[in-house]
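Q: Predict the bound structure with magnesium ion.
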Amino acid sequence: MNELASDSHPSSSAGSQKPAGSRAGSRKALAILGSTGSVGEQTLAVALAEPERFSVVALAAGRNIEKLAEQVRVFRPALVSVAEPAGAAALRDALGSVDVEIVVGAEGLDAVASHPADLVVSSLVGAVGLAPTLAAIRAGRDVALANKEVMVMAGALVLREVQKHDVALLPVDSEHSAIFQALAGQRAEDVARLILTASGGPFRTWTSEQIAEATIEQALDHPNWDMGPKITIDSATLMNKGLEVIEARWLFDTQPDCIDVVVHPQSIIHSLVEFKDSSVIAQLGLPDMRVPIVVALAHPERIALDVPRLDLAAIGRLDFEVPDRKRFPCLDLAYEALGLSEAAPAVVNAANEIAVSAFLAGQIRFTQIAETNGAVLNLHASRIGDAQTGADGGSGRLRDLDDVLEADAWSRACARDWLAASA
Ligand code: MG
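A: Predicted complex:
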């Protein structure tokens, strides 16, 4: 498993090239975008536990100066980036004579992303992670990708850049890590289907009538994973699984009709790959984000990890069911977006962010999240139609980051208007 040949992965983006950062005998140098967040902290915990394997050469954080200062004292990176000049001054004060270059803002993020490193860990949350991740790819860096928005918003663009610069994209999301592991040593032409598992969320067994009355507290009560409020709501609507289908489409350069979703309430099988001879390879484990993080960091090797072990006999049974696309329409909206245009995934993602915030603020009902996403996607479809007939509108192509950000901003405005009109 630790001898991945250069052609060992079928996709052109996820690990299809040289093994990431595998320079024999030297430590893997890490640059971390989002070092004070959850994935960033867990990455640093691995680096601390494995000093012979990893060095930390650059860190980027936002406003948590205190935590960042502590990280700089422990890991002594050459370069650090913060969101604002005031934060840079506070960090300089806190660090005293520690020798580190401090940079600021979007340029600072780009500097960390393109700093000489073997692996850039992209773990900023949200659209702010897009530009630095593209900068890392364009600088020829391999990337461990924990930021969902990168592939959801800009997948078509990122895939082209990954192919052009011949870098490896190592997924950190549990489902995509599972697929990445199942694909190891296989040829692209032998793959029949990618199968993403979904827990089904807290409303898996609820009727449509019950779901229509769901409260914020009920939607936030996820059965298996402890996550932030936005992604927990996305799990309840199955939009999260839809966004993961979009990620898989670009990460593994696979057509949407070769990507399936199966509901698996125990979250033990993290995803599967079916091959043309009907063999299916799955990756299993207890739900623990440390595992996909370590898989990406150590690739193509593996690191001993002190976490609870899977005991299949103790679990006893694993259950599966078809996702109910009527009760959870967000799943089909993701497939619809993939069929519409390169920009449509960014559109449905942005509409969903607006709708989920409105739901969490108590302004709309749970089912209005899917309604908003569907309505904005329809408006995007008409807009592309207008562009094709020469009227004003977006083409739906993603030529560069500006196109992604335009689609995102357009969608947010549409979603707000639509919610205001339907209030
Ligand atoms: Mg996931």
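A: The longest helix spans residues 367-388.
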